[in-house]
Specification:
- The complex is a heterotrimer.
- Chain A is α/β, with parallel strands linked by helices.
- Helices cover about 35% and strands about 20% of the residues of chain A.
- Chain A has helices at about 50-60, 85-90, 105, 115-125, 130-145, 150, 160-175, 190-210, 220-225, 245-250, 255-260, 295-300, 330-344; strands at about 10-20, 25-35, 40-45, 65-75, 80, 95-100, 180-185, 210-215, 230-235, 235-245, 315-320, 320-325.
- In chain A, the strands form 2 sheets. Chain A has an 8-stranded mixed sheet with strand order 6-7-8-3-9-10-12-11, with helices on both faces. In chain A, strands 2-1-4-5 form a 4-stranded antiparallel sheet.
- In chain A, helix 4 (about 115-125) packs across helix 5.
- By secondary structure, chain B is of the alpha/beta class.
- Chain B has a domain at about 10-105 and about 185-240: Rossmann fold (3-Layer(aba) Sandwich), CATH 3.40.50.300.
- Chain B is built from 10 helices and 12 strands.
- Chain C is elongated.
- Chain C has 12 helices and 2 strands; from the N terminus they run αααββααααααααα.
- Helix content of chain C is about 65%, strand content about 0%.
- Chain C has helices at about 20-30, 30-50, 50-55, 95-130, 130-145, 150-160, 170-180, 185-220, 220-230, 235-270, 280-285, 300-325, and strands at about 75, 80.
- In chain C, strands 1-2 form a two-stranded antiparallel sheet.
- In chain C, strand 1 and strand 2 form a beta hairpin.
- Classes of the chains: A alpha/beta, B alpha/beta, C mainly alpha.
- Chains A and B meet through helix 8, helix 9, helix 10 and helix 11 of A and helix 6, helix 7, helix 8 and helix 9 of B.
- Chain B: It holds the Pfam family ABC_tran.
- Chain B: Keywords: ATP-binding, Nucleotide-binding, Transport.
Chain lengths: ~350, ~325, ~325
Amino acid sequence: MKIQNEQPVLTVRNLKTHFFTEDGVVKAVDGVDFDLYPGEILGLVGESGCGKSVTSLSILRLVGVPGKIVDGEIWFEGKNLLSLTENEMVAMRGNRMSMIFQQPQTSLNPVYKIGDQVAEVFTIHKNLPKKEAWDKAVELLHLVGIPDAEKKAHAFPHEMSGGQAQRVMIAMALALNPTLLIADEPTTALDVTIQAQIMDLILELREKMGTSVILITHDLGVIAEMADRVAVMYAGQIVEQATVQELFARPHHPYTKGLMGSIPVLGKVTRRLEVIPGSVPNLINLPQGCRFSPRCKARIEQSLEICLHENPMLVETGSNHLCRCWLYDGQMKSAGDLMEANHE
Amino acid sequence: MNEPLKTHTARMELIQVRNLKKYYTIRGGFFQRIKSCGKAVDNVSFDIFDGETLGLVGESGCGKTTIGRTMLRLIEPTGGEVYYEGNNIFNLSGGALQAIRRNMQIIFQDPFSSLDPRMPVGESIMEGMRINRIGTRKEQFDMMIDVLRKVGLEDYHARRYPHEFSGGQRQRIGIARALALRPRFIICDEPVSALDVSIQSQVLNILKDLQEEYGLTYLFIAHNLSVVEHISDRVAVMYLGKIVELAHRAELFYNPLHPYTQALLSAIPIPDPAVKRKRITLKGDVPSLFNPPKGCRFHPRCPFAKDQCLVEAPPYREVQKGHFAACWLNE
Amino acid sequence: MAAQVDSISLLNDYPKEESPWRLVFRRFRKHKLAMISLGVMLVLFLITLFARQIAPFEVDEITVGNYFLKPGSVQEATGRVHLLGTDNLGRDLFSRLIYAGRISLTVALLSVVISSIIGVTIGAISGYYGGWVDNLLMRIVEFFLTIPSLPILLIISAMLLKNQDAIPIPQFLLELAGKLMLLEVREARQAVLIILVLAGLGWLTSAQLMRGMVLSLRNQTFVEAAKAMGAGGAWIILRHMIPNAMAPIIVDASLNMANYVVAEAALSFLGFGIQEPIPTWGNMLSATQAYMLDMPWLPLIPGLPIFLCSLAFNYIGDGLRDALDPRLKL
């Protein structure tokens, strides 16, 4: 368990990243707040288009045109990243904060030896001479479990399997001992047995180096096995946030509950899976009120009016447990009264 | 209802696969000589009983997709036989083949490339009936609307083009298209792996409902063991072109006999932090099909490999009643 | 069980959905130059379509003594205006230009249609069936493509124009071509031969393009799906391959249209195309050579429509390419 009276290494407040497309403004990330504590793995979980990847790209300030961070603050090592110049950001990326991606093979340059690519991190950020950088690279490859690292350093990316390529990516990401590692679906493209290897590797390196990790995935199994805390995202916002034990033991938000019911679990065969009706909303034309309301069974069963008019706030609903839902909002009653008052 | 243990001895085999082989060759050099040969499917035999779902799991490159494609002759086999109700479909051609093909359909993994982007989806669904000259235009149309409703879509969707649908909806259309020919056997090739979690369950439920309503038989190919366990009656596990274990679902999950199955099961992340398991982490990567290890193909990664495993491939046989495995540990 | 559906008309209550082609047109409209070009070409086609009604003089109407009249000159006797002046024989240039346009555009259009049909067919067969068929067809295509196109065009058309009966052309085709181009049957033979020469060499690149499309489509899952339903080669090519390859084929055809207008002009200019007195933009341009220094506006008169057509079809092709780009959402 994390001791949360420490200072967070990363604080994200009211982050909004929008994409200005021909068809309208896509609110990919729309008011995201969270903290990340030292040595912690925070899981960001959600379905495609929920904004989890854009959130991580925003932290690295890698959102490209037509996307733009329109609001918010990202505090990291005492600086608001959104107020840094591009040059200051370049010095930050790959050095103090780094990222690994879903497709390791496409993230490596096919025309350079992997040893050179890892060594490059040292020559760029630390100005090490070539020979020394190469030795350090081999050492790193060894650390991430590449067998026969001296020889493999001379290999080209296409000669490596997906699992090995991901190990190389992790080596590059952790080369300069960053404070923050963002792992965007690091195991999704890999086979199950290789996924297990990479998960073990990330956990092991976190222990060794004390890196804080943001783990982005759609797989609740990976979250349960790796994360300390979890934030569930839906349509550009965090809808629930809790420690991993708390979240799986007592999920609050109807979306979280729906997700958990809709995945088949090994060893627990059910006749039918739960279904979240409908599909993810269009981020250009979001539903009024709570963004989950059109698909929310709880709202329909309890015929809650307010959900259709007002988006709930992310409020504390237990110890270290936040939820964005009128069902758990202590103010619901008064807000409901307010609505009625408005009607009169 | 789904009874927990179907005894398959009393049931009819709808599909019998015998010694199925599919080899790929790499040619090179000036004379295009065969340089190396990859056995994507290597002497695989199994039965599928009428009305059951046989799950076929394995990691990428293990040959599971090739098996499905070869069974429908979308890829021509290198050897072996596939019987549908006792007829070897590899010996058929022309009209006889087409008549049997109607009964064997397939649902594809990629919901985006599996529909013709220039065809309204209603046309796509009716296409099979047109090709096989089933019914009048009106009957074809009625059937199309019928299956469209069956998979939870609306009548007016028939006029739309694929680009107007989400991945989950397209997958439903793919199911409707397969269903329109009223097949008895459907190969589901990773039908949910490209879909979001909340959409996966919708599609899985539809597949289960349709099976009940029409008494369909499925071959469900997937890499996700949790999904396979959920939907299958029996499960076959593949590794490098061979089936290493095949048993009833519960039997396989509670009493796995092959070390690969055991490792696979323990590698699946369980969405429950309270469950603490001891994971068997396999060393190394899956070897190349073009250069498979001698002896048992799994031995370089196997925690229990003995001397015998390095030399001789273990026989694939019925170790316990209805439980097949290929491992020297069971001999 | 679902309720029985009464009739196909049931669907007519719902608005028809936007088809991919309609979407393409919507995007095409955003391409300004292409839209202007389309407008220009429509006007040109309309003018040539109503050549008989619009042209003030007959094609070969000669007014004796009125040689080299300046644009805008008025015949004193009749009061008729020579909008663009007259040529060395006193023929009205404006009228000849319109009739020439009819011929030049028809030749280009028919060449495009024929070469596309041949190219698509050969390319589809080659790509779909592969193996030795593919090998044979593509080697033939490559062989002809290695020969520089202008010399071979010149040689073939020179040979054909010398013995115009070398290739038997059915009479009804000649009559049809004559009607299309407002020519007598005897004259039409020349134009048809030029079309055959242009299309005969033009299908090569179309075939290569189509083959490439088919090769990439062959691996698409929907083709596999059709096979799984029992579809044969012809069905798959006609119902899936061709509609899906249509986009690049149309772009290619539009760019080819520009090439054929220029190629026909070049042939006629060099004297190996359609011969005087049949007017085409190319031979009209050729006829101005001798007088270019004294009357520099003369070559501009047939030169401008050639230039306009070439430019317009290139822009239309560009616009179509952008509109059909699969990377944009479709």
